[in-house]
Amino acid sequence: MVNKKKLGQLGEELAAEYLKELGYSIINRNYSCRIGELDIIAAKDNYLVFVEVKTKQNFKFGTPREEVNYHKQQKLQQVAQYYISQHPKKEANYRFDVIGILYQSEDDYQVSHIKNAFLT
């Protein structure tokens, strides 16, 4: 069993690699400000994509999408707005995606990608 912090780091690494394979440019990882944190900030097709990564070893306590509740969505939106205010020349269009990683081992994992996971 992998500890929670290590599992999160593994998931974020896998998510970043997955996005790169799909042609996304990774702009920032673990962006942090006084408001909170964004796991991955990526860009593709004139969109700035704020990605929340949820890594689990089972779905006993819900799916990754279910973990991004209303409160978490509000927090992500606030951090994204702050990021945009500090980087005004970035792409004008943006969205929020959730990437779920079901992780069993280095060679046994599944990735699910929910684009536009919630409305802004």
From TrEMBL:
InterPro entries: Restrct_endonuc-II-like, tRNA_endonuc-like_dom_sf, UPF0102_YraN-like. Pfam families: UPF0102 (PF02021). It comes from the Bacteria. One of its GO terms (molecular function) is nucleic acid binding. CDD domains: PoNe_Nuclease. SUPFAM superfamilies: Restriction endonuclease-like. Belongs to the UPF0102 family. HAMAP family: UPF0102. This is UPF0102 protein Acear_1657. It comes from Acetohalobium arabaticum (strain ATCC 49924 / DSM 5501 / Z-7288). The lineage of its organism: Bacteria, Bacillati, Bacillota, Clostridia, Halanaerobiales.
